[in-house]
Structure formats: structure tokens, C-alpha cells
């Protein structure tokens, strides 16, 4: 009798590796992660083929469902496609060029391999193994015979051909990689064509990246293009906008003044650029809140006012009003026992525009035969003498200290408290037009050098150290953004006018804003983008404004003498000197030149008025 064959034990089988399991609780293969399916008994050939077809159909359905699931998950997560795709593309490029470098290295083409590895580190700093590969290639180069010019030429030609193919296809990253190899192999190979293609590749890729979130890389590419030849006006404007935007981000929360200056400049040029309007508004409000917490009410009010002008908000307007009231209450009062005296104004009627802070000025004293320094306060219209035989006042930004020029037996640069007490000599001798740094730690002034040429110097406000010469010129005015403006000329004695140095501590040259040697009496606006000054372009002295981004505006137009402008702390008014009614006086006007009216009388005599100065502070 024949024994029947024992039927095989049926269980689960992996659809990938074929492993079998009898545990019905398993869903996935412990060996490879494949799907476990029930094992079917052997069937006739035709039936098995039908099952195989159904099995394949099921797997296709499963794959389709998995694909759809992945797409749905990607959509749900957002994936930040712009940044992620670019990162993946850069990583893929780095992988590709690293593999090329390894291939060149194995074939003994060390120079090409070195160029590949160096490019990998350029596009993907810290790429694993790249630094070791560079060291290996360099070591091999030292021990290998120098390649012949023919070999180098062939390699350069191959790289050039690859770059040209990428150029025709518009693959700018590949163009840059290939042509940089050409330059490393043979700097003179097809030089003009290489430069032309590199310029286009750098410019095109830079402009493309500007639309995404890789501004730093975009600016770097545009600067590479500009190093080959100047960018066209449109591309250069976009590069400057992006550079200002990035720099403002670096100063955000660290130096609010600098961040606001950069954002304001960008907003003035391109108000619709990215989110510059929203960022500028946020910066001004945040900085205003910070100043308010520090009880610096007057600067806080200025920030709130600028924010309200940018975008009205009832909440910010309430802050501005509160800061303005606190600012007026914080105005210092004279200290008893000093040299100050109180003098009533010739007219006690308040003048529109003089509603905040204090104004310093010099007036001729006939009893002394010299000028004396006075301060008039907006809150109660009183006038105080704070120094005798003195003029050219300059307030520290917070209004707590006053710098001025002293005459008499001990001439020089002096610093005193707001009421004139505690006067200290900082520099002795002939000086002119002192002005404070924004942080109040230094002073700039003009003085003749050893050869008698007027020179701009900077000195520590406490008198320590040696004054440092920074430029040739007169009438220095240190702005709230740290830019030092002055009246001067070029080295040849030509190209005269107003110059602005964005950082007097570095060697970069200043920018010339005007072109007349008689543009003097400089005063920065609180918003850091305008300089008021006086000039006799038309044959008599008038007051002008020059914008640092370009453009000059005439504010006064009178046959008399008008000059020595000074901005109010909030930028809403300008004070100036004039003799338009037959006697000298201080006048006020709006920044557009309207509403001109006299504030107070200075008398019929005002000696050397072109070398005087007004100073307005919180």
C-alpha cells in the first residue's frame, strides 16, 4: 500500500525575500520588512499564472496607494519645497562632483581631481571626506611629475566643452563648476568666452536665487558677476536691495539704530521690496518700546512718530503722545549756584513748531564785547546763559551735555552739563564746530593742521588719548547713524562740496553729496536721511536740504541772509538764523520750508555769523 505524502504546512510567505513564517500575528517580514501573504497550495499551471497576475496587480495597487499616501503627506507637511529642493540639488551636485573627483584621482589626473574636491567644499562646506581627498590629491601632485601643457590643455578643453553644453542648456550651477575648472587648469584658455559665460551664469543664477530664500548666496553670485564686469542698473539695484536687507537682519535686535537706518534707506528706494515696510514699522515700534522702558522719552517719541507716519495705529499714537508729554517733563532745569541767569524772551507768545526740547545758540554781548552761549527752553520759554566768551554749541544726543568753542585766555573745545556747570576743557587751541558721536563717547571737530590746512579730528569726549585726523575739511556733523558729514574738497582741491563718511573709523572713502565749496552749516535730520545746510548758490545765503540718496531742496528764498539750520528732536521743525527784518533773529519753519516765523530776537549785531551754530536737543 502506498503511503500518502505529508501535506506541507501552509503559513505566511514574504513577497520580497520569500521567507516563510507560521505566526499568523505577523504582518511584515522580520527579515526584510516585506509584506507577508498567505501561502497558497500548489495549483495547476494556468491557475498559478492567474494568481501571479492577481498578485502583481495587488502589489501595483499597494504601490499606488503608498505613492498617493506619500504625496498627501508631502502636501500636508508643506515640505518647504524651495529651500528643501535647493538643498537637495546642492547635495546631489556635491555627490556628483565628489564622485568625479574620486574617478580622476584613481586615474592619476590629480589636478582635475583637486579642482573637483575644492568645488565640492565651495558649494557644500563640511562635505564628508572632501578635505581628506584634497590632501590626498595635493600629496599625489607633489610626488607626481608635472603634467605636460598638452595634458592640461586637453583637460581644459574638456571642461570648457562641458561648461559650454551646460551654458546652452541654462544649467548655471554646472556652468560655474565647469568653467572654474577651466580657470584652475589654464587661466588663459578661451579667456574672453569663459568670462562672458561666467558673467551670465553668475548674474542669472544670482537673480534666480533672489526670488527664493537664499539671499546670501544670491548676493555672492551677483558680486562675482560684478567682479567680472559692472552689473546692469537693474541687477545692481537688486543686489544692493538684497545686501541692505541682509545687513539689516544682522543688526536686528543688536543695534536698532543701524537696523532702522538700513531698512529706512531700502524703504525709501523700494517700498514694496519683500516685507521691508512691515519690518521697518516693527523695528521702530520695538525700539521705541525699548527706549520708553529706559525712560529715554524723547528718542522714544521720535520712533513712535516715525512709525505712525509709516502706518497709522491708534495704539502707537497713544504711545507717542505719552512719550512726548514725558519728554517735555524731563527737560532739565538750571542748577542753583552756576553762572546761568534766566532771561525772559522778548515776546512770551509761544511760536508754532517750538514745542519740545531746548535750543542752544550764541548771541553778542556788548558788555563783554564777545558772544555768550544761551539755552532757550520750549516748555516755559525761558532763556539761560550757560557760558561766556563761547559759541558753536553742540548737544549730546540725549541733551544732557553741551560741547562748545571757548574764546578768551584758554581757548579750545569744552564740555559742560546742560546748565553750564562742570565745564571741562577737552582740546586746547584753535578749534571749530564740535559735534558728538551718536553714542556720546567721542567728539569730532575741525582745526588747522601743522601746515595750516583745516582738518577733521576725532577725540574721546573725556579728553583721554590723542586726537585722530580723519579727513580734510570743515563743518563736521556727526549723524545719528554714525555717518560723519563735513564740507571739504578732493585731494586735488577740486570736487568740493558736502561729503558723508558712513564710518569714520574705517579707510573706505566718503561719498560726495553736493558740489559747491560754500555748502556749509551742516545738520543731520533725526531720521538720518537728510542733511540741512546753507549755501550762497544764488548770490545770497539760503537754507537747503540734501537727501543722502540724492536730491537737493531749497527751503528759504529771501533777499536777506538765511542759514545755520538745526533740526528739532522729532524732525518736525527747523530753526535757522536770519536778518530778514533788519535785525538778527532765530526763525522756525517746517521741513518743507513753510510756516516761517521768528522765535526770538538776537539784536542788530551778530559778528562772524557764518561761523556760528544752532543746536536743538530733547
Could you explain the architecture of this structure?
This protein has 618 residues and is α+β, with helices and mostly antiparallel strands. It has four domains: 57 residues; 60 residues; 88 residues, Serine Threonine Protein Phosphatase 5, Tetratricopeptide repeat, CATH 1.25.40; 276 residues, 6 Propeller (Neuraminidase). It is built from 13 helices and 28 strands. The strands form seven sheets. The protein has a five-stranded antiparallel β-sheet with strand order 4-7-6-5-28, with no helix packed on it. α3 runs antiparallel to α4, α8 packs across α9 and α9 runs antiparallel to α10. The longest helix is centred in the N-terminal third of the chain and has 33 residues. It is elongated and about 110 Å long. It starts with 11 loop residues before the first strand and ends with a strand. The N terminus is likely disordered.
- What's the CATH topology label of the largest domain? Neuraminidase
Low-confidence stretches: 1-9, 40-83, 330-349
Number of helices: 13
Q: Which architecture of the largest domain would the CATH scheme give at its second level?
A: 6 Propeller
Amino acid at each position: 500500500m502506498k503511503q500518502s505524502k505529508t501535506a506541507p504546512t501552509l503559513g505566511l510567505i514574504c513577497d520580497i525575500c520569500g521567507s516563510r513564517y507560521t505566526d499568523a500575528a505577523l504582518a511584515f517580514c522580520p527579515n526584510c520588512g516585506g509584506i507577508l501573504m498567505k501561502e497558497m497550495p500548489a495549483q495547476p499551471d494556468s491557475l498559478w499564472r492567474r494568481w501571479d497576475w492577481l498578485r502583481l496587480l495587488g502589489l501595483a495597487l499597494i504601490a499606488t496607494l503608498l505613492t498617493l499616501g506619500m504625496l498627501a503627506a508631502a502636501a500636508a507637511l508643506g515640505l518647504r519645497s524651495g529651500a528643501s529642493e535647493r538643498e537637495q540639488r546642492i547635495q546631489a551636485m556635491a555627490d556628483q562632483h565628489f564622485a568625479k573627483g574620486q574617478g580622476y584621482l584613481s586615474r592619476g589626473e590629480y589636478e582635475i581631481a583637486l579642482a573637483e574636491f575644492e568645488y565640492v567644499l565651495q558649494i557644500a562646506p563640511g562635505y564628508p571626506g572632501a578635505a581628506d581627498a584634497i590632501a590626498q590629491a595635493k600629496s599625489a601632485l607633489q610626488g607626481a611629475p608635472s603634467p605636460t601643457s598638452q595634458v592640461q590643455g586637453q583637460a581644459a578643453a574638456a571642461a570648457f566643452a562641458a561648461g559650454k553644453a551646460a551654458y546652452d542648456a541654462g544649467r548655471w550651477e554646472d556652468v560655474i563648476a565647469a568653467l572654474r575648472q577651466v580657470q584652475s587648469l589654464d587661466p588663459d584658455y578661451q579667456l574672453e568666452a569663459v568670462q562672458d559665460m561666467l558673467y551670465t551664469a553668475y548674474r542669472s543664477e544670482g537673480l534666480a536665487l533672489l526670488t527664493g530664500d537664499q539671499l546670501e548666496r544670491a548676493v555672492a553670485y551677483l558680486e562675482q558677476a560684478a567682479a567680472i564686469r559692472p552689473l546692469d542698473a537693474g541687477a545692481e539695484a537688486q543686489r544692493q536691495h538684497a545686501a541692505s536687507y541682509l545687513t539689516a537682519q544682522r543688526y536686528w535686535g543688536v543695534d536698532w539704530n543701524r537696523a532702522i537706518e538700513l531698512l529706512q534707506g531700502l524703504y525709501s528706494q523700494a517700498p514694496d521690496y519683500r516685507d521691508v515696510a512691515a519690518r521697518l514699522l516693527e523695528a521702530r515700534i520695538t525700539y521705541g518700546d525699548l527706549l520708553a522702558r529706559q525712560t529715554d522719552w524723547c528718542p522714544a517719541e521720535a520712533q513712535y512718530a516715525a512709525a505712525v507716519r509709516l502706518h497709522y495705529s491708534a495704539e502707537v499714537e497713544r504711545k507717542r503722545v505719552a512719550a512726548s508729554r514725558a519728554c517735555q517733563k524731563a527737560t532739565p532745569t538750571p542748577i542753583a549756584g552756576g553762572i546761568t541767569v534766566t532771561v525772559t524772551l522778548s515776546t512770551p507768545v509761544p511760536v508754532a513748531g517750538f514745542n519740545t526740547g531746548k535750543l542752544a545758540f550764541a548771541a553778542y554781548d556788548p558788555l563783554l564785547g564777545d558772544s555768550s552761549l544761551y539755552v532757550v527752553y520750549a516748555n516755559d520759554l525761558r532763556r539761560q546763559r550757560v557760558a561766556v566768551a563761547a559759541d558753536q554749541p553742540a548737544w549730546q544726543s540725549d541733551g544732557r551735555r553741551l560741547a562748545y568753542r571757548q574764546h578768551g585766555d584758554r581757548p579750545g573745545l569744552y564740555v559742560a552739563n546742560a546748565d553750564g556747570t562742570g565745564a571741562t576743557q577737552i582740546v586746547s587751541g584753535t578749534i571749530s564746530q564740535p559735534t558728538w558721536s551718536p553714542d556720546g563717547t567721542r567728539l569730532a571737530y575741525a582745526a588747522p593742521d601743522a601746515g595750516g590746512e583745516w582738518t577733521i579730528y576725532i577725540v574721546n569726549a573725556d579728553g583721554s588719548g590723542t586726537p585722530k585726523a580723519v579727513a580734510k575739511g570743515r563743518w563736521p556733523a556727526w549723524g545719528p547713524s554714525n555717518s560723519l558729514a563735513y564740507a571739504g574738497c578732493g585731494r586735488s582741491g577740486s570736487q568740493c562740496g558736502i561729503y558723508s563718511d558712513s564710518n569714520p573709523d574705517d579707510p573706505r572713502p566718503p561719498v560726495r553729496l553736493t558740489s559747491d565749496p560754500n555748502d556749509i552749516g551742516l545738520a543731520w535730520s533725526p531720521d538720518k536721511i537728510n542733511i540741512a545746510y546753507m549755501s550762497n548758490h544764488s548770490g545770497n545765503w539760503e537754507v537747503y536740504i540734501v537727501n543722502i540718496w540724492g536730491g537737493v531742496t531749497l527751503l528759504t528764498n529771501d533777499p536777506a541772509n538765511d542759514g545755520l539750520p538745526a533740526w528739532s528732536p522729532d524732525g518736525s521743525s527747523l530753526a535757522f538764523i536770519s536778518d530778514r527784518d533788519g535785525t538778527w533773529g532765530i526763525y522756525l519753519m517746517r521741513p518743507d520750508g513753510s510756516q516761517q516765523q521768528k522765535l526770538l530776537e538776537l539784536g542788530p549785531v551778530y559778528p562772524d555769523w557764518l561761523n556760528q551754530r544752532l543746536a536743538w536737543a530733547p
